[in-house]
């Protein structure tokens, strides 16, 4: 049997930018971490927040983690980059309450990880496999997880035009595939929705430089992929599934899903009473 080993970063990575919702400047450092440490956030007040489903405080518009004294918002893109690029353990230090949005995608994080490289830790990777399928549902939103030899995603979205219906079926999500096909896809919003958020003091860091804005007549700016919207939804799912703390071996079928269902699925996969999932 081939043993997969855990990996961490070969060196520190420093990135800076504004938060999408707060508009505040943030300086972020990704650092190597010991085997079995997983991912965690260290904040300026000294708080340490493990990136697990137990620390999720909100899934409204982004995934927010929290401790009794602090919160960190919009964690999904950096977690997607770490997980998608094959990192098992990393410490994330940040001096603000929101991860910088960068260009709206996971690409700046993933590019930096690719440039820095990884170090093998000679400790077997923690892998989550399924014995049987299960699903979580919220109205017309559905997420199904089925046994599979590799992690892959099938994602369907349905939005008003010009987005319409989009479907993405991935092969095995390897670091090469993630960097090329998933990481570059940016967060998005409809123009009317963005204007409403502005009026509420939200999305203060959003701009055409870090988001796909969708108007009634089309996209405000050039798309990176014709189906960039559904690809970004798959990116978000990878980031939320990083909260498993294990490398998933399963196929995910997502119908109009979002952060709330992603986190609900992670909780179900890790529930002690669930016989469907096994970790090794």
Q: How much of the residues is beta strand, in percent?
A: 25-35%
**Can you tell me the CATH topology?**
lpxc deacetylase, domain 1
CATH fourth-tier homologous superfamily: lpxc deacetylase, domain 2
- What's the rounded overall pLDDT mean? 93
Helix content: 10-25%
Cα-atom radius of gyration:
18 Å
Tally of separate domains? 1
Which architecture does the CATH hierarchy give at level 2?
A: 2-Layer Sandwich
Number of helices: 6
Low-confidence stretches: none
The count of β-strands is 20
Query: Biggest sheet, open or closed, and with what strands and sense?
Result: 7 strands, mixed
Distance between the termini: 13 Å
Question: What best-fitting shape do the alpha-carbon axes yield?
Answer: globular
Q: Which CATH first-tier class would you pick?
A: Alpha Beta
Structure characterization notes:
The structure is a single chain. The chain is of the alpha+beta class and 280 residues long. The chain has a single domain (5-279), classed as 2-Layer Sandwich (lpxc deacetylase, domain 1). The protein is built from six helices and 20 strands. Helix 1 packs parallel to helix 2 (107-116) and helix 1 (76-84) crosses helix 5.
